[in-house]
């Protein structure tokens, strides 16, 4: 099963997203947004950025 983004409202009334792997494990989560539309836009931004993102190792 493919991964999926979930957009949800937190206890403070803000909107957040989390990326879940196919096995249901949360592999990434986003910041708090004022609107559901902004949280969806955050998901879309991650999708665009991840498509060609390199893996870089750092010492810190």
Automatic annotation (TrEMBL):
<dbReference type="InterPro" id="IPR010879">
    <property type="entry name" value="DUF1508"/>
</dbReference>
<dbReference type="InterPro" id="IPR036913">
    <property type="entry name" value="YegP-like_sf"/>
</dbReference>
<protein>
    <recommendedName>
        <fullName>DUF1508 domain-containing protein</fullName>
    </recommendedName>
</protein>
<dbReference type="InterPro" id="IPR051141">
    <property type="entry name" value="UPF0339_domain"/>
</dbReference>
<feature type="domain" description="DUF1508">
    <location>
        <begin position="10"/>
        <end position="57"/>
    </location>
</feature>
<dbReference type="Pfam" id="PF07411">
    <property type="entry name" value="DUF1508"/>
</dbReference>
